[in-house]
Amino acid sequence: MKVLVVLEDEFRAYREVLAAGVQALRPGARVSTTVPSSLDDEMARFDPQVVISSIPGTTRPGSVITWIELPTDPSRPTVVSFGGRSFERTNPTLDALLQIVDEAEEKCKLNGQPANGDAFAG
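The structure assignment produced for this chain is given below.
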């Protein structure tokens, strides 16, 4: 599973800790970080299945199946777009975010897509 964490530089520590937490607790995941201004380039380069971002999800080419809009203002809800549906969470914990990542990975497997984002060999 490829996970991209996108937060502004003023939240760099939060971005890096979030990415490190995903990597540590899901060692099979490939995790990358970027700032919103570099999002398009990183999307093209990394081709993530899950994006955790401070900006709203938009339709973009590639293999993104889950977009988690994680606002930097804790009074705003987190919006999760997953498999054609959207739902909100209030201040989700890292465990809650990981559960969403796990669901995205399961969806990849059910659809016959490689969960690591790489092409099947052979």
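Interim note for the steering committee: The beta strands are 2-6, 30-34, 50-53, 66-69, 78-82, 85-89. The first helix runs from residue 12 to 25.
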